[in-house]
Design brief:
Layout: H1 4-24, H2 33-44, H3 58-66, H4 87-99, H5 103-128, H6 133-145, H7 147-153, H8 159-178, H9 183-197, H10 206-217, H11 222-251, H12 259-265, H13 272-297, E1 299-300, E2 305-306, H14 309-332, H15 351-374, H16 387-409, H17 417-438
Antiparallel strand pairs: 1-2
Helix pairs in contact: 1-5, 1-6, 1-17, 2-4, 4-5, 5-6, 5-8, 6-16, 6-17, 8-9, 8-10, 8-15, 9-11, 10-11, 10-15, 14-16
């Protein structure tokens, strides 16, 4: 069987499930969807949104959400995403105009962008572990069918484009570590990073990751580091400056991202200090960890519909198994040519490549925790910028156990059943989540 056929099956299945989610999920029952929709509506009306003091009304928003977006409520005042960069919304504007503002059509465009994330996740895994195609398929399966991720990708939300750009940047950067003399890759990195600056703040995480990689690869070749840095950051800065300059004019001061205006406007949003007063530090941390884990895997609507404890318990067991397997992987992985010279022993991943994956994960976690030091935003989806390294690590960790079993029973092809088993289990979970948990409760 050609190695691209399993990926094609994964993508087709992803679209099938995603279309179900996009069509069946009730209108506005995805996080912040009305605010993202209204951004596009304003662009379609011929004006670039500005974050204003009237954009956020905590009481009205809570009333609308608790009513399950009853038709008597007007969603047009929900515009607190007006501070976001415009690229995703500009892509959605023709869809809005052509379909008369169809929410489902806008969700489907996000779904298409999400398919790119799935394909790039596979490409990253194949680049790093070219001899183990099943790791690439397993990584793609986890990214495609993670219930919460599918829910977000099938909604009107700028996360879809942000994740696509992060995935593309990650793949190009990892390729560059293998071809450090190829300046063309650096120019592409600069272009994509600049587009990321015009998409969402989460893509900014890739800037320090790229900087560390440049210094690491050309250590002590300072002239070359400067030249490579200019190839990446000059075009990225020029594109980003279009947005930053506009914000300086509109918001004043040094508020180049519009974040200062946003934080001043969202009066009434629950603050972490209030929770510490109410629940204590230990209680707040416990709630943070529990809700983060639950909502990473699946807590639907506006965080109102979590999956039941028995499902969460199985997912926790899966994660613990994967973590232990990841620690074992360097000792059980089939030997690769030249691997004894590489870090992680048998895994054919260089120190720099591992560092790139680790830094993206670390920066994502730090940003998430930092955000929650001010606001109560215990949403695991904020970890999705690091979804590819997280799911690649999960695939490697689960694969380590399969490799051990394959050696015991002398069935070297057994690891190829891992993506099949994961795919069947997660597809079933996606369907159960949609029809048993989401729809009856939204």
């Amino acid at each position: 069987m050609h190695k691209s056929i399993p990926l094609l099956i994964i993508v087709i299945t992803y679209f099938g499930l995603g279309i179900l989610y996009a069509r069946q999920t009730p209108a506005w029952q995805s996080p912040d969807e009305p605010a993202h929709y209204n951004y596009v509506r304003q662009l379609a009306d011929g004006r670039l949104p500005v974050m204003e003091w009237s954009d956020y009304d905590e009481l009205y928003r809570n009333e609308v959400v608790s009513s399950r977006f009853a038709p008597e409520y007007d969603i047009s005042p929900i515009t607190y995403e007006d501070w976001q960069p415009p690229l995703y919304y500009l892509l959605q504007t023709p869809v809005f105009l052509f379909t008369g503002g169809s929410l489902v059509s806008m969700r489907l465009l996000s779904l298409v962008l999400g398919a790119g994330v799935v394909v790039l996740a596979y490409a990253v895994a194949r680049l790093l572990l070219p001899q183990q195609a099943w790791v690439g398929w397993s990584t793609a399966v986890l990214v495609a069918f993670l219930p919460q991720h599918l829910h977000i990708m099938a909604s009107a939300n700028n996360d879809a484009l942000a994740e696509l750009l992060i995935a593309a940047l990650l793949l190009l950067l990892l390729k560059w570590t293998q071809q450090p003399e190829t300046s063309r890759l650096l120019w592409w990195l600069g272009l994509l990073l600049g587009l990321g600056f015009l998409t969402k703040g989460t893509v900014y995480l890739m800037a320090p990751v790229i900087a560390v990689a440049l210094v690491w690869q050309k250590w002590r070749q300072w002239g070359q580091i400067v030249r490579d840095g200019l190839r990446v950051f000059a075009p990225a800065f020029l594109l980003g400056a279009l947005w930053w300059g506009r914000n300086l004019v509109v918001y004043g001061g040094l508020d180049i991202l519009g974040k200062t205006r946003h934080d001043a406007v969202v009066v009434g949003q629950i603050r972490t200090a209030e929770w510490i007063t109410q629940y204590g530090l230990g209680g707040t941390v416990t709630r943070f960890l529990q809700t983060t884990f639950n909502s990473f895997w699946g807590q639907f609507g506006w965080m109102a519909v979590p999956m039941p404890p028995r499902i969460v318990g199985l997912l926790l067991l899966l994660v613990v198994t994967a973590v232990i397997g990841f620690l074992l992987a360097p000792f059980v992985w089939p030997a690769s040519p030249g691997a004894s010279q590489r870090w992680l022993r048998r895994l054919p991943i260089s120190n720099l490549q591992f560092t790139i994956l680790a830094l993206l994960t670390l920066f994502t976690v730090v940003l998430y925790v930092g955000y929650n030091l001010t606001f109560v935003q215990h949403q695991g989806r904020y970890l999705f910028p690091a979804l590819i390294p997280l799911m690649l690590g999960t695939a490697v960790g689960l694969g380590a156990w399969v490799v051990i079993l394959a050696e015991k029973v002398r069935q070297p092809h057994l690891p190829y059943l891992l993506p099949v088993g994961l795919g069947l289990a997660l597809v079933l979970l996606d369907l159960v989540a949609l029809y048993r948990y989401m729809l009856p409760n939204l």
